[in-house]
Design goal:
mainly beta; 5-stranded mixed beta barrel; 5-stranded antiparallel β-sheet; 3 helices; 18 strands; elongated; binds zinc ion
């Protein structure tokens, strides 16, 4: 059951997004290149059905299928749902219908958007046609949307097509994006607020006495709430590490650099951060480190060696 968020618990918008690059096989390449050329291609199954959008393998026999056919740019709505509030990245900015359209000559339906003035203007069985995008690149968005259409069938005569086009599209970049509000809960709120004073706080389990950093509010081993707040660090010990050789997009750090698990003094769980202030090939297990804060930062930029002797393995072996 939803409840009103506590005013003491932080909330903030969080966006996770990344581009996903995939290569296209011969069938998807022909399908998307075809859309760029205002041609819709389906694929024939071994039992003679035409699938649009096409797939590489017969869904019944699992046979590889390659026989492309051109289908119409007009079709029939087989089912639909009204979208009252289009979200970012959807085909149309104003309310529209999601529709399954069986294009003329196809035996399956394609999911897309239908531009309509309202839900009263949409019905199963209505005739529609493709509205092509003005600029086409070889993507499903080359079909801008569908629109109501009462005329004769258009495009493709369900005839074979060799799928050969000039400059075929061989790959696409699909942008994944999760856009939501994150509430870290009571325990992590205290952890984040302490960081603003450049302090690190964990919580101790009343049963096994382990100190968790960052705290999650409960001990995963004992299954009880952790309530005793404990300040740990600021110094700690490198328990394990890796050398990063691949430069991450949007991260202005020269490779190679070291990313390490660091057990802060007093903590029973290691957190992770970058190690700097020492050549990357001299970082080692047991290295004693301290945080380095940059002006206005909300967490340490990195950790650097303190110059103390290395910690004895027995002191952190349970934390590796
Ligand atoms: Zn416990």
């Amino acid at each position: 059951m939803a409840s009103a968020p506590s005013p003491d618990v932080l909330r903030a918008p969080l966006v996770v997004e990344f581009p996903f690059t995939r290569s296209l096989g011969p069938v998807q390449s022909a399908f998307l290149t075809g859309l760029r050329e205002r041609t819709v291609l389906g694929v024939k199954t071994t039992d003679g059905r035409t699938l649009v959008p096409p797939v590489e393998y017969d869904p019944v026999t699992a046979d590889e299928i390659r026989d492309l056919v051109e289908v119409g740019a007009t079709g029939t709505v087989t089912t639909w749902a009204w979208n009252h509030e289009p979200r970012r990245g959807q085909p149309l900015a104003q309310p529209f219908a999601w529709v399954l359209v069986q294009l003329d000559g196809a035996d399956t339906a394609l999911l897309h958007a239908l531009d309509a003035p309202g839900p009263d203007a949409v019905r199963t069985g209505m005739r529609v046609r493709i509205r092509w995008a003005a600029e086409r690149t070889g993507a499903i968005t080359d079909i801008a949307c569908f629109e109501a259409y009462e005329g004769a069938a258009q495009g493709g005569a369900a005839g074979p097509h060799d799928g050969v086009f000039d400059e075929p599209v061989t790959g696409i970049v699909a942008h994944a994006r999760l856009d939501y509000v994150y509430a870290p809960g009571r325990a992590q709120t205290a952890y984040i607020k302490a960081l603003s004073d450049q302090k690190t706080v964990g919580e101790r389990c009343p049963s096994c006495h382990k100190v968790y950093v960052p705290p999650r509010g409960a001990c995963p081993t004992c299954g009880v709430a952790t309530t005793e707040r404990v300040e740990v660090g600021p110094r700690g010990t490198v328990t394990t590490y890796c050398i990063v050789n691949i430069k991450a997009k949007n991260l202005d750090i020269e490779v190679p650099y070291v990313y390490a698990h660091i057990a802060l003094d007093g903590a029973d769980l290691a957190l992770h951060s970058r190690i700097a202030g020492i050549p990357y090939d001299q970082v080692r297990m047991g290295l004693r480190v301290e945080p380095v804060w940059t002006e206005g930062a909300r967490f340490p930029d990195h950790y650097r060696p303190t110059g103390e002797p290395d910690a004895d393995y027995d002191t952190y072996k349970e934390l590796v």
